Amino acid sequence: MALYFCADGGGTKLLMLAFDEKLRLLGGVRGTGVSTLTADAGQVQENIRATVRSLIDMLPPQLRGSGPLRVEKLYQTSCGAMGPAAVSEKVLDIGETVSIGEGPCGVLAGLAADTGVLTLSGTGSDCFYVQKGQRIDAVGGFGPILGDEGSGYDMGQRTLQAAIRADDGRGPASLLRDYVFEDYGLKQRMWELVDIVHGSDNYRRPVARATYTLARAAKDGDAVAQDILRQAGRVLASDTAALLHRAGQGPECTLPVTVSGGSWKIHPLLWQTYARCLREAYPQLQISAPHFEPVMAGVIRCILDTEGTVSPERLAQLKENFAPYVLDQYFTEAD
User: How far apart are CA 113 and CA 126, in angstroms?
Assistant: First the structure.
């Protein structure tokens, strides 16, 4: 049996899965973040090793031996220089490592193709134009201080700011005020947030964590929370339109477009606003919800390399075999 691994890493998690030559899912695990922006290099390496060990432990016993595990190909994305191939040489015997860039990864997993436009909103945000698996152009991605508008961090920051303004009377009343008290364990004063955020060894974590509070308030109908989501959707659509314009694409453009990143799971309003605003600027675009989590990019790349395309029948098979990584359920159009 030929064994293949896929890995997709970021600031908050490392997803890994294993599959065989018959495109059967053999196991999948979620580890902690692997970005050196959110953890030191030593911790990142240990996070990767722990995730690899967990995946190996999930495999059928007949595949596990006393020596390094043979993996024909490792497809890895957004893991930097310290991906599974670099820190797991004692437990993995990897035939070939295929590195897939962040933009191509999202296009492969989202569209089950190697050409299209991707709008990413996770801890950060950026947009990519990809042709035949290669990044052609991109906008955004400048980090939380210089950019990342419409990202999880950006929405988290706006959530905390709105809660603060609601608390001291500078802004409209909002459920965010009470929910921040609950979710962050504040005892008496909103000022306690200062110690939580600025006292953290990485301020991005407690800020980005506010997206859970945002999701809760938006689900409960809070107007302020819903406005934060709509504003982010408009910004992400504007960034995508700017990328298309820079690429020389006019309103008649019919390129396929999809999205990637954990922020899209916060609430349907983000996706609905983004899709509506982008269609207003580019009505002919083929805007579609992503098929799979980015970690599936390696599976799609494997099929494209051997079959040339992902047929509707093959796509249906993948959605059945890799059901834990299907994303369709998170995206609904507005009524």
Answer: 20
